[in-house]
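Progress narrative, work stream C.
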Amino acid sequence: MITSIYIANERVQVVMGEAGRRGLKIQTHAATPLPEGVMINGVITDERALRAALEQLRRDYPSLKWQNVRLCIDSSAIYYKQMRLPALRPKRMLELVRGEFADMENAQELLCDYAVLQPRAQEGGVEALLCAVKREMVESYVQLLKESGIALGAVNTALDSQIKLVRNLPALREQTFIIMVLDGNVLGAAVFVKGQFRFANRSRLLAERGSEGLQAEVERAVSTLIQFNQSQKSGEAVTHLYLAGLRPQERELQAEVCRAFGLRVGQLSQGGCEIDAPDGFDMADYAYAAGNLFDF
C-alpha cells in the first residue's frame, strides 16, 4: 500500500491504496482542515499549525502508513514547459531539462525533473513535461514531514498527479475536455485533447466560494480554455467539463457552466477505472492525492 499526501490551501488530504492496470484500490482516505493562512501559494507559513494537522491525522487514522510516502504539492512558483526532446537516457535527459531552465534567475537553486507524455512523438523523439521548482520550497516540506515522523519516498506536483490520473481513466482517453480543480481561492485548469495533456494554468479566484460571482469566474476560465483549444487547431472540440473540489453548496455549478457552453458534465468516478474504495470516497474530492498513487 502507498500513502499519498496532498497539502492543499485549506486542508491536508491523504489516501492510502494501490493503483495499477486493474484499477484503483483505496484502503483509507482522510482529510483535516487547515487554519486560514497556513499555506499560501504552496509556501508553508505556519509550520506549527501544519504539523498539528498531520499529527491529528496520525491520531485519528492509526491504520495509515507513514513510510515511503508520496507528497503532492502545488504552487504558481512551480515552472513548467512542454516540449519535444530526443529520446535519451534519463541522466542525459535531465541535463537537457536543466538546460531549458538555465536562463532563469538563480537557476542553480532549482530542482528539475520531467515526465514523458508521449514516448513516440509524431515527429520523432518524446513529448515531455518539464518541471522546475526552488530547492528551498521542496526542502521545507521534506524537513517538516520528517519532524512529523513521515518518511518521504517521492515529491510530485499537482499537475503531474492530474495527468497520471487522466491517463489511467480509460473513458477519458478519447475525450477532449477541460478539467478544473477548486482549491480554496485557487483554480487549477487544464485542457486535454483526446486524452493527451495540452495546456494548464493556475489562477487566483476573486469571488467568494459559493457566491454567484464564482460561476462567472469559472465560466471566464472555461471560455479562455475553449478559445485556446480552437487557436491550436487541434481538430477536436471540447466536449466535457470535469470539476473537482466543489463544496456542497456548489454542486450545481458544474451543470450550470456546462449548460452555458453546451458541454457534457464529466464525472471522474465514471472514468472507466475500476475503483474499490470505502463508502464516502469521491474521486473528484481527492483528484490530486489519488492521481499521485499512479506511476507514469
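Work stream C, second folded protein:
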Amino acid sequence: MRGVAMHGMIIRSIQCFLEDTYGRPVWEDIAKGAGLDPEAFEPMMPNRETRTDEVLRAASRRLDKPRDTLLEDLGTYLVAHPAMQVVRRLLRFCGPDFHDFLYSLEELPERARLAVPDLELPVLDLREHDSESYTLTVTHDVPGFGHVMVGMLRAMADDYGALVLLDHIGRDAASEVVSIRLAEPAFSAGRRFDLRLKAG
C-alpha cells in the first residue's frame, strides 16, 4: 500500500494545487482529460501508478505548461499557499535559517510521519561540497518528485530570506539530483514565522 498511498497523496496534492490556483472548472477539465470522474474520484483508492502520469499529462495539455514546470509550481504551492500552512510550519521547524533547514532535510520524512503516520515522503540525501554548494538526491517511486523539491526549496529560501540558486541536474531509474547553491543566507528579511499556532 505504500506506493498507493504515495501516489494518492501526490494526486490529491495536484488536485488541490490546480483547484486553488486555476479554479474548480479547470480541475474538472483536467480530471476528465485523465479519464477520472472529478466528482467521484478517490485519490487513496488503489489506482495504478500511471494514474499520476495521466493527471500530469492532462494538466500539461490543458495549461500548456511543461510537466516539470507544473511540478515545480506544485512544490511552491505546498509551501507558499495560505491553504498549506501546515506544510510550511512542518518545514520551518527544521531550522532557524536556510542552512540549518538544509541539514534537517534528511530527517523530514520521519518528522512528517509523526504528524501523518501514513505519509510516505521520498528519501532525501544531502551532500555538502563546500560552504555554499550542495546536492540533494531524492529517491522515490514518483517520477518528477525532484522538481517538486526544487519548487519547495525555492519557496523555503524565500521564506527564510535566503538567495539560493537551484537546478534539477538529472535522474536515473530511482533517484533525481538537485543542485543547491546558497549564494546569500540572509539576502532579505524573509517571511514572519510564529512558533505558536493561532486559535480559530
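The chain has two domains: 2-65, 96-184. No further action is required on this item.
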